[in-house]
Amino acid sequence: MINEVLMSQGSWEITLRVDSPLDLWQQLGVNNQIGHIVVTPQEIGLGPLVLGDLGMLEVARYVGPVLKKHIDGWQITLSGTNNTYWLGDDEGKSEALAPVVFTSASQATVIAALLPTSVVAGTLTTPPDNTHTATYEYESRLEALRTYHAEQDMEYRVNNNFTLDSGPSNSVYNIDTPEIVVTRHGFGSDANYVGVNVQEAASTLDASNLTRTVTVITENADNQLVLIASSDNNFIDPIDTTLVAGDPGRYLNPFALPFERNLYIQVTGNPVTVSGFILNELNEHTVIETHQISTEFFEISNGDMRVGDNFHIYDPPAFTDTANPIYFRGEYIWPLKMRLIRASWPLRRGMGVYYRFMRVLDWALQTYEAVYIDLTPYVQWEDPSYSLLTASGRGPVAVGGCE
Amino acid sequence: MGTLNVGRVVLPADPAAWSDNRNFDAHTSTIKGYIGPGLTVDAAKALRYELLQQQGMIVSLTYTLDSSMDGFYILNDVKISTIETSFMRGFFPYEISLTRIGSDGATEWQSLMTGTVRVNNHGLILSEVTGSSIHAPARLHVAYNVDGGAATQSTRSTEHGNLNVYTGLGFDADPTWSVAPTNFYSSAAYIMTGGTLRAGLDMPNSITNFETGNRLVKMTPSLTASVNDGRWDMSWWTGAAYNGPFSFEIYLDGNRIPEWHYSAPITNTPEAVRFRMIRDANDPASIYRHQLDWEIRRGCAFVSFYYSFNDGLEGPTDHDIQIKLEGSSTAMTSITPTGASSACARQVADQSWLIGSAKTVTVPHGGGIHLDGIPADFFIGFELSNTGIDTAESMCLQYHAPLSVIERVVRR
């Protein structure tokens, strides 16, 4: 099973058949190198010989380092993450980053300095404000890249060929012109879209953590609690001039008074950016909208829908957006445009699975070549039932979630 | 001899066996019989397949000799045995198993509607089209209810009889209604290919022999020497008979589409049918693959079309599209409904056919309209009368207030 998560490492696990040759145990790295699993949409036979290393990485559906191998009796299981691993991990490990200071630095300069030697710059799309001033020290390269991209309101992707694409989200991912339409009925081909059938489309709205205001306090030198700042969540403002008689009131308590709920957060010192801190907390404590979708057809035509891309989903009454009309198979519909944040998909019979590692050509000259072992005959294929998950947005303001 | 109606399949023969079982979970029925008696061999073969097509659907089931079992069922399983006598005498043993939902007294239908103003070049906004959508439940329905709202009822004459249709609904209305199982398919939208009423979507390519309609309007391919000639024929029920057919044709950048090669059903429900014609890119050699989709909804006097083609470029491109009546150069009258800043349609004469679009509508030398850009949406309707929802102006607003409707059974 492959688990992909937007701009994160995700995970994968592949189990080999019990009748696989056991010399694979020695060949599949981990104890002496970090090799990679390469998954292609179809088995490519002599692919590595015909396509070469670059060609294999170009056609691959998924590439990720093999970080763990496990053997139980005669059954070998491999697992790892995707190529984001090479930027660093959430524990803070990465290729060491010497302190670096940027002063009105361009995107190319920043990316070149923050990337490790294991990832090179791919397609860089200039952000609107192409200057960056910051100091990075004693942190992982992954954290530094995340901070840079968050500050510039950009996103990134580590590709299968170990390049990094960076830029506004609609330059890195297919945000503006989604081509996939997920529907419960009436899926099929169309001139402009590819229709996909959904097995499960569940939507949840959760107001358990709803908070009206967030108040940040701290302890001063006299051990007294003092207010730093407070802010209101306008999302639940009960004064709505569009309401007319007969409409449900917005967020009122049982006595028809405005909904009041405050969260005190005590911090040490002053948060660097109090307003941003409060905004994050308000976004954490609002109505959470979660959509969960399952479909058998995640692998669409060489992966036309990738994690990070937008897609349309139409399943009234929850999955509609009258501000997003499209023509689909003779009908004018209003699907919800959503972003694929996370996807889990199994290894299906018919795919190609290879192990890529670096083999010594000349030790004295320190030259190597990428070599592939075809694991396809030995893979224990999985049940072809896909799940396609989208993480929630935070209230009506999407934060890395559905839109 | 009685008649057993299973969904859209009419079996003019008594079932050989009918058993019912009810427990805490459900009421299930199993019916066995023979497709064949009372039918030609070809008709029996066709019905055999249409019965299979309805597996998984909610169907109305009626039996003329025992109406106590009439009701709505889920068709769970269909078994057809083709034996030696099947091929020569059209004799197909069948067995169907169903889960009963209930009679019309226990069952309500809900039309789950989604819609808003169509994106348009005529300045029409939401408030100007809200309430114009046409909603038509099954003919002879009862207990129409729009929870928390009101609707305006009008009556239209169809081939099956008078049909009540409703306007004045909000886009988020989800009206409920009830209907006797015998009337569920009355004035319903339908697809016929090869002379057979189809129940599902699996049907052969019948580009020269299909009919789509709703008993108020019907659409068939136009043929020349038994070959599809790129046009299509439309007729409207005007009270006692169908008028027409009117043959319409479509031009791309001045070149008429000479032939459609392939037909495909997209949707086939009593509420709406959608059908597609495709022209290959290779015959004659062309870089384009053309596609014409249309939608016919129950109770609607116009057909919504959507024409697109693959020219290798992303998104709409500038092309001149002309839709016109074959051989016509008649001057057209503009139809500009209340609230619109430009003509939404052109009509050849009062109480006649009209063509409109959400795009800017300009006229060529006559007989039709020009549209700029691909994809091209348009509608072709017929002004049934000069009053109420039948007028050309009202039809323009109805087109700009599209609805997507899903009909579902709900507990009363």
Provide a compact summary of the structure.
Chain A is built from 6 helices and 25 strands.
General description of the model:
Chain A has 403 residues and is mostly beta strands. Chain A has helices spanning 24-27, 47-59, 107-114, 141-151, 169-172, 274-284, and strands spanning 2-5, 11-15, 36-40, 62-72, 75-80, 100-105, 120-124, 132-136, 155-158, 163-167, 180-183, 194-197, 200-206, 213-219, 225-232, 262-267, 288-294, 310-314, 326-328, 331-333, 336-339, 342-345, 352-362, 367-374, 387-394. In chain A, the strands form six sheets. An eleven-stranded antiparallel sheet of chain A has the order 13-17-25-22-1-2-5-4-3-23-24. Chain A has a four-stranded mixed sheet with strand order 12-11-18-21, with no helix packed on it. In chain A, a hairpin with a 2-residue loop joins strand 19 (326-328) and strand 20. In chain A, 35% of the residues are buried. Chain B has 412 residues and is mainly beta. Chain B has four helices and 30 strands. The interface between A and B is medium-sized, with 21 and 32 residues.
